[in-house]
Design goal:
GO molecular function, one term (chain A): NADH dehydrogenase activity
Keywords (chain A): Cell membrane, Membrane, NAD, Quinone, Translocase, Transmembrane, Transmembrane helix, Ubiquinone
Radius of gyration of chain A: 28 Å
GO cellular component, one term (chain A): plasma membrane
Largest interface: A-B, 97 and 80 residues
Strand content of chain A: under 5%
Strand order of the largest sheet of chain A: 1-2
Number of strands of chain B: 0
Oligomer: heterodimer
Helix content of chain A: 55-70%
Structural class of chain B: mainly alpha
Largest sheet of chain B: none
Number of strands of chain A: 4
Number of helices of chain B: 3
Number of domains of chain A: 2
Membrane topology (chain A): Multi-pass membrane protein
Structural class of chain A: mainly alpha
Order of helices and strands of chain A: HHHEEHHHEEHHHHHHHH
InterPro entries (chain A): NADH_UbQ_OxRdtase_su1/FPO (IPR001694), NADH_UbQ_OxRdtase_su1_CS (IPR018086)
Shape of chain A: globular
Chain lengths: 452, 126
């Protein structure tokens, strides 16, 4: 076993039975993962809010999700009279099935031996594996749109539109945050990206050899931070959980899927998506199945079945991060969410790609460094000039707006009915702490509830 | 069964996973149909509008903005996908400087697209 890390040429040789075993393992793993994940989330967030959380079904409430799942499987399933029956039925399937597909390219570990066949601990790998992940995420959006459309209810269609606009917006930023990783790794194949993060190089500076950390989270920190934000937006999790809003949209796109197995499929897809984006974060940025530093000193840490343990450990930690964020942050407003995605994340991402590409080019052999630096300088100055121009325009617009509002207030102060709305006078006495005489002398009679 | 080797062998496995997924969910829905009670009443089958009788035919009109954002998505997602092959060959010998300059021009065009949408107030919500 000279090189345990698999590459693309190790795939596509599995006998069919082995592929089916691996595929079934992925399903079972994700199903059990969702059951335990829901329990973990509820338990963890309860402790963060000084509650106990589920503690009735089974020891520590462990069977709570099983009980909920059984209940959903056995409840009456309503198909409202007005819905588009085919689309209404298909939407949960369209959202749930692709959610599982992305896991087919997630590397769980290196080459192992299963029943005498040497095979990588990964269902399959493609030269465009990460693209497959993005593609399956996009198919999931169809499920959201169709559920909203097929339900034929104002809440559902509004929730569906909102959710899909959010997910596609954050998907662009997500795709862009991968580019720097591909620049470093030179490949889109997940197993090779993981292999590239195996050992750090050394950085020769002033005659010293400083070992560089091998995980891309260190060398490409801005990409990772942007990805971490987009993965919350992509999976509709707090603080970007706007598709559901009890006060405005009820359940959003799944309002009409009252409490049946179809609703359970939406829930399942949501949690599987959380696992998927976590697994992608681990694969692209957090070293994949490689052992973290103190453990990696042990030579056997990255061989055999051990890496699967490190992978699961990272997955659990990533999931706990989602729960932690949910417990800590309030949700953002929808216009802020979209503005953040389009006006901050995407431009930042583009700038970072330029910067990362320049750094990468500088470190290539046989390249004209002076030329690259000149190019970089032109870009930086140009970007700064555009930003400056933009900023002054924005500033001017903001000042004009503020002046307009101030003017309107001025007018309203003089003539309260000017706006055309039947507003109460803005200078009523009780605004200034003056109690009306009637209330002061108890002349008003109390009206008990229930009387007319 | 076709050979699992070769370029499409890896995709065959993805299809196997897809079929298993469809099978599991179709089976689940079928079992659910067999086991669950089914006693619909007109009230149960009404669209949920927080307890009041539903108004109109269901679909509500909504803002055009969602549609515009989908358009923007198509533009930028396609652009982003163009970056992927570039990123993979970037460090290969024979590319280097030219590739870098070309991609800077390309990214400038993308950035121009965002700036245009921004200027046209498409990205603002109110």
């Amino acid at each position: 076993m000279n090189n345990p890390a698999p590459n693309l040429s190790d795939f596509g040789h599995d006998p069919l039975w082995l592929s089916i075993i691996k595929a079934l393992f992925i399903f079972v793993f994700l199903m059990v993962g969702v059951l335990l994940g829901v329990w973990t989330e509820r338990k963890l967030i309860s402790r963060m809010q000084h509650r106990y959380g589920p503690n009735r079904a089974g020891k520590f409430g462990l069977l709570q999700s099983v009980a909920d799942g059984l209940k959903m499987g056995l409840k009456e399933d309503l198909m409202p009279r007005t819905v588009d029956k085919v689309i209404y039925f298909l939407a949960p399937v369209i959202i749930a099935v692709p959610a599982f597909l992305a896991f087919s390219v997630v590397p769980f570990g290196p080459m192992v031996s299963i029943f005498g066949v040497r095979t990588p601990l990964q269902l399959t790998d493609l030269p465009v594996a990460v693209l497959l992940v993005l593609a399956t995420a996009s198919i999931g959006v169809y499920g959201i749109v169709l559920a909203g459309w097929g339900s034929r209810s104002p809440y559902a269609i509004l929730g569906g539109l909102r959710s899909s606009a959010q997910v596609v917006s954050y998907e662009i930023a997500m795709g862009l945050s991968f580019v720097a990783v591909f620049l470093q790794a030179g490949t889109l194949s997940t197993s090779e990206i993981v292999a590239k993060q195996a050992g750090g190089g050394t950085w020769d500076i002033l005659g010293m050899h400083i070992p560089t950390p091998s995980w891309y989270v260190f060398s490409l920190l801005p990409s990772f931070l942007i990805y971490a934000i987009t993965m919350l937006g992509e999976t509709n999790r707090v603080p970007f959980d706007l598709p559901e809003g009890e006060g405005e949209l009820v359940g959003g796109f799944h309002t009409e899927y009252s409490s049946s197995l179809k609703f359970a499929m939406f829930m399942l897809a949501e949690y599987v998506n959380v696992f998927t984006v976590s697994a992608i974060a681990i694969t692209l940025f957090l070293g994949g199945w490689h052992a973290p530093w103190p453990i990696s000193i042990w030579d056997g840490a990255n061989t055999g079945w051990w890496p699967m343990l490190w992978f699961f450990g990272k997955l659990v930690l990533a999931f706990c991060f989602f729960v932690w964020v949910r417990a800590s942050l309030p949700r953002v407003r929808y216009d802020q969410l979209m503005a953040f995605g389009w006006k901050v994340l995407i431009p930042l991402n583009l700038a970072w790609i330029l910067l990362a590409a320049t750094f990468r080019a500088l470190r290539l052999p046989e390249v004209d460094r002076g030329g690259i630096l000149a190019l970089g300088a032109v870009i930086v100055i140009g970007a700064f000039a555009i930003w400056l121009r933009f900023d002054t325009t924005n500033q001017r617009r903001r000042e004009r707006k503020a002046a307009e509002v101030e003017e309107e207030f001025e007018q309203l102060r003089e003539e309260p009915t000017a706006g055309g709305f039947p507003v109460p006078p803005l200078d009523l006495p009780h605004y200034h702490g003056v109690v009306p005489a009637a209330r002061l002398h108890h002349e008003a009679k109390e009206v008990t509830s229930g009387s007319n | 069964m076709a050979s699992m080797d070769g370029y499409f062998g890896s995709y065959v496995v993805v299809v196997v996973l897809l079929l298993i997924g469809v099978g599991i969910f179709a089976g689940g829905l079928f079992v659910n149909r067999m086991l669950r009670p089914d006693r619909p009443t007109p009230e149960k089958l009404m669209t949920y509008e927080c307890g009041v009788d539903p108004v109109g035919e269901g679909w509500a009109q909504s803002q055009i903005r969602y549609y515009v954002f989908t358009y923007l998505y198509v533009v930028f997602a396609v652009d982003a996908v163009f970056l992927f092959p570039w990123a993979t060959v970037f460090a290969a010998p024979g590319f280097g400087m030219t590739t870098l300059a070309e991609m800077f021009v390309f990214l400038a065009f993308i950035a121009l697209g965002i700036l245009y949408a921004w200027r046209k107030r498409v990205l603002a919500w109110t």
